[in-house]
Design brief:
With 88 residues, this protein is an alpha+beta fold. The protein is built from three helices and three strands, in the order H-E-E-E-H-H. It has a three-stranded antiparallel sheet, with helices on one face. Strand 2 (36-43) and strand 3 form a beta hairpin. The longest helix is centred in the C-terminal third of the chain and has 14 residues, at 55-68.
């Protein structure tokens, strides 16, 4: 069974996924460098979402959709390095 929105996005841009990422501070009153952060990523076409507290959590959510497209990123893949902030 198709998920809501699958046909619309797929028919317009096959092999494309869109994600919405929201990030916020936890305990910002603790001051710079002492507060934590959390986030939520949503797969736009299906509405599926996950909360995360690490870049690996974010990357693992996106990786599921890459696998469905036939892409097999490895733990040292460019996606994971990019999400960690390593732009090399």
């Amino acid at each position: 069974m198709d998920e809501p929105g699958d046909a619309d996005v797929g028919s317009i841009q096959p092999h494309t996924h869109s994600f919405l990422v929201k990030v916020w501070l936890v305990d910002p009153e603790r001051g710079p460098g002492r507060s934590g952060w959390r986030g939520r990523i949503t797969h736009v076409p299906t509405g599926r979402h996950r909360h995360f507290a690490t870049m690996n959590g974010l990357a693992s959510f996106i990786t599921r959709y890459l696998h469905a497209m036939g892409v097999r990123p490895t733990p040292s893949s460019r996606l994971r390095r990019w999400l960690r902030g390593d732009r090399r």
